[in-house]
Task: inverse folding
């Protein structure tokens, strides 16, 4: 069935990149959904075919079969069928979603009937599309604005909105506020799920919701600490706090060969994210994906839905964000109108995110992370959830738990370290973005113009061969057969070229994309340190104006030194992981590239052997 | 020295082909003259850099050093120096040419002083440029008009003008008519050379010139025969000619396995065109290239200038053109503003042309061709030259020398054969043009966007590597060194990609270009047969109206059968050569392609080995 799609925004093709210029409102036919790289191949009314960003088009509802409008099991079955076809989640659920809104209104009143409001997380809201939210490569686009909008942690505002949005959806979840509908897809999903949970877990969950909402308040406070510009308080919350609780949950920092390091465990925690299962509720009107996470410690799988990952992210950001950059969840970068592709991509990125968290000694050993990986049963999970949400050692207060076993640093030295790290992360951020930009271009060429050209070469050889066959001259079968084979070989090469990026460039891009997200968190983390350093600089003035006692000034210097050790430990952790990751991905890339060129060479040698040597 | 050039014609860049859009009259800077493929890289005033067809720009005279305006040896020396630089022949000789015009005017009066008229054959006259005459690939362009204008034999008009022009220049040569200056470069060259000859050979040459001019008349007559449409006479000149001289210079046709074939010699004639020498006359004011041709029969080298090749071409076309397609000389397709490139290319193509002529049993054994290859001395050459020019067995009269040793063919059968050959040559012409078009595109991509992209990938790796080096973290030299090496490798790959077309695609293009020229001659050759067949069809009517006797009708049928045998022998010759040539060129292409991909794979394997395996 030819998939028609509506163009949501103007897109101007970049010359030579096999792109297709489309205008808002135009209807195009999807000719290939499996280009990858956030692109689909579309054909316009004039028959021109080219690549269009997947998030610039919206599949036509009209292209869908219609359902009976009753909330029975029947449509659910229908949905299942469509989902198994190559239709997008949006296609599959748009009509039923509408129905569901009606169901919702029956359940939650007062509730405005909003039949046109997207419910499926796979639906692209204009906002998302504007920010290329559904294009995984778009995060790899050099355009910083696009980058920022794709990675909520990549700049302060991004973080603010990112967390605010999550907060709303969460708060909304507790109160079932209709505005939840207006948020981006993911939040809608959260809302539905929360609503589902409520219907099952009842009021208990609402309480947690309230505690949770309160917690948000704390979260936002800790948030402000990150931006002294906007803040009355700032890091002095830690620098000047009266007494620091001893003994419990301490984070020691040791002096290693490379300088300050976290305490690393004997055995490295890791986990496998696998086996995504589609669950459904409300007689199949509501569907969700549940992933199975198996830690190497217990080897006992636990199930989590995306919203649980998001909850974990929020906890980790609240608790460790000031000392440890917590990369945002893949969500904002992941794409896919088409279920399988989407789930595969999301799972791959959740796996990457989890592995990175497992590799961090502080996070891996944290109570909330262990809970996520090893909760015994629903009750265990809910209890742990509430406890984590009530944790008050969040924001800059995390530094109260850090204990460096080393001499205090001179504030000057602290400032130098801080600036050095800032320079490096900025430079690496640029370097990573450059690779992403080049890779993005290369991806398009390899899936677009290049294979087309090899195909044309192949066709030209075969065509000439068939002309030769028509000569009526005797005894040229060897030549014509060989030429046909050579032609076919170039068609195979075209195929190889088009497939290759998924085999090598993909992982190079994924790793750099992960690092782009990670590096985007450093400005916040470093910002906290800068604020603290500035505060310490004011020390004398503050003493003179009796704002603080001389003793408190000494304490501040001591504590900023602790913060600096934490930052150094974190940088050293970052460096060792960076070296490991880039060593791995470069090897993988080059290995696949070697295979690629060797395969082509072998094919051509085979083709060559078919000619009679003279 | 930055080479400035004037844009002669508007050129609109094709998207994604690394081309530069230029407007007539615009001044650009030549940034790379060695792109090949008839392209140069130019930069416009806005700093944009891209490819422009070499024949769309004219190098500025202003960019040239100025000379003393005296016709002494001094400027000649000066010229030598410049020629060794990367300046074009035009650049090198423009000023001296002007001086020479002045010299000419002193010698040949009445003579208008035409200082602005080009004299060097390397100067591109607008006409030449219009016909892409200086772009070797342009002959490979799908655009048939371009094709035609590049190959004077590729259509009747083309042939007409081609020969007419030659005729003029030749006639002019005899009379030293100033209009010679107006013709395209090559003719000017002829004129100068002829004028030089005169100054040495004196009036004798003028006589030969006259005889020659008469001969032209014959030539034009035989020319007309090829286009019955324009002709009162037509092939009946042969079909009805009274008696056919017996015995002398007969061209037998035997029945071979594949059908009628020419008589092939025991040993294959071949020759080597090599060692181009720059000669100069008039105290170095006048310069020319002399090639050394060594046949494998005598192994004694003879020297010829381009004008001699052109003379040979004219003779062969006159004498055999009706029975045997004579591909036009490379001249019209060859390019090069830059001396070495130009001479190399022209020699390569003269070699190709000569080898093809050598491989043809009829041409190889002809008196005129043997004279060209084996003349003993200047006197011997001039005598043979005059004799050849007086030869009257030209045009359709060549068929009087053909003696098939086979039963006469039924006119119906003759017509069928003729149509079959026509269909095949047309189909092959299309197939060849398709390869040329695709190859043309591929050439641009391989020399343009693709290497640029590999270069950017290489730079991105190296850049990230140097950022890593700045981390201050210990013990990552292995990684950074390996990443730098990988980056350099991709820059090397960029180089390989850009160089590759000259190693493989070039020969594929050259061979197909040769065949394009050759196939372009068939319509004329086949046209003669069609005209003869039509005439025979009229047989009865002609008898009825007493235009011919019944006996003459019988004779016509017999002779058209002879013509058909000739055509079949020629087609069989064409086929066997085609099989040989394509077998050879396809093998060479694939061999080089295999080497190319293996080299890249090896380089990448080397780069991969530098990473520490984990």
Result:
């Amino acid at each position: 069935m030819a998939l028609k799609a509506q163009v949501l925004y103007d897109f101007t093709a970049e010359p030579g990149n096999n792109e297709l210029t489309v205008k808002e409102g135009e209807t195009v036919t999807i000719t290939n959904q499996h280009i990858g790289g956030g692109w689909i191949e579309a054909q316009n009314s004039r028959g021109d075919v080219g690549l269009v960003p997947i998030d610039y088009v919206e599949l036509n509802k009209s292209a869908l079969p219609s359902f009976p409008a009753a909330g029975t099991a029947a449509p659910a079955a229908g949905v299942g069928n469509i989902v198994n076809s190559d239709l997008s989640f949006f296609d599959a659920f748009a009509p039923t979603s509408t129905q569901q809104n009606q169901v919702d209104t029956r359940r939650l009143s007062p509730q405005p009937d909003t039949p046109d409001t997207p419910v499926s997380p796979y639906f692209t809201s204009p906002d998302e599309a504007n920010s290329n939210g559904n294009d995984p490569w778009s995060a790899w686009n050099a355009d910083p604005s696009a980058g920022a909008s794709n990675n909520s942690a990549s700049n302060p505002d991004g973080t603010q909105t990112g967390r605010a949005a999550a907060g709303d959806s969460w708060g909304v979840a507790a109160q079932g506020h209709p505005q939840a509908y207006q948020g981006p897809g993911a939040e809608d999903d959260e809302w539905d799920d929360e609503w589902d949970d409520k219907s099952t877990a009842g009021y208990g969950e609402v309480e947690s919701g309230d505690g949770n909402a309160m917690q948000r308040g704390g979260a936002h406070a800790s948030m402000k600490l990150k931006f002294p510009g906007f803040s009355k308080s700032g890091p002095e919350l830690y620098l000047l706090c009266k007494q620091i609780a001893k003994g419990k949950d301490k984070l020691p920092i040791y002096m290693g060969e490379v300088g300050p390091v976290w305490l690393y465990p004997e055995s490295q925690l890791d986990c496998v994210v696998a086996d995504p299962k589609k669950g459904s509720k409300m007689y199949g009107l509501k569907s969700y994906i549940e992933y199975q996470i198996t830690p190497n410690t217990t080897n006992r799988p636990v199930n989590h839905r995306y919203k649980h990952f998001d909850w974990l992210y929020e906890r980790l950001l609240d608790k460790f964000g000031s000392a440890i950059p917590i990369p945002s969840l893949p969500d904002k970068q992941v794409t896919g109108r088409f279920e399988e592709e989407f789930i595969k991509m999301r799972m791959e990125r959740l796996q990457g995110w989890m592995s990175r968290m497992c590799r961090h000694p502080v996070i891996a050993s944290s109570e909330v992370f262990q809970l996520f990986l090893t909760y015994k049963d629903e009750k265990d999970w809910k209890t742990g959830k509430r406890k984590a949400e009530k944790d008050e050692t969040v924001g800059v207060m995390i530094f109260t738990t850090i204990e460096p076993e080393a001499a205090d640093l001179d504030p000057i030295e602290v400032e130098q370290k801080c600036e050095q790290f800032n320079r490096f992360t900025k430079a690496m951020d640029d370097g990573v973005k450059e690779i992403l930009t080049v890779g993005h271009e290369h991806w398009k060429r390899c899936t677009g113009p290049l294979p087309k050209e090899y195909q044309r070469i192949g066709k030209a050889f075969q065509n000439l061969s068939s002309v030769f066959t028509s000569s009526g001259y005797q005894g040229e079968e060897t030549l014509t057969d060989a030429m046909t084979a050579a032609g076919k070989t170039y068609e195979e090469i075209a195929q190889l070229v088009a497939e290759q990026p998924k085999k090598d460039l993909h992982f190079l891009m994924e790793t750099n994309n992960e690092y782009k997200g990670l590096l985007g968190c450093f400005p916040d983390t470093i910002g906290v340190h800068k604020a603290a350093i500035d505060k310490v600089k004011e020390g004398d003035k503050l003493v003179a104006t009796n704002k603080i006692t001389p003793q408190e000034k000494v304490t501040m210097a001591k504590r900023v030194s602790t913060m600096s050790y934490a930052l150094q430990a974190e940088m050293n952790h970052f460096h060792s992981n960076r070296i490991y990751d880039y060593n791995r991905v470069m090897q993988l890339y080059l290995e696949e590239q070697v295979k690629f060129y060797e395969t082509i060479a072998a094919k051509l040698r085979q083709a060559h052997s078919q000619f009679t040597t003279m």
Notes: Chain A touches chain B through 70 residues (CB under 8 Å). The domain at 257-406 of chain A is CATH 3.30.1520.10 (PX Domain). Residues 550-609 of chain A form the longest helix (60 residues).
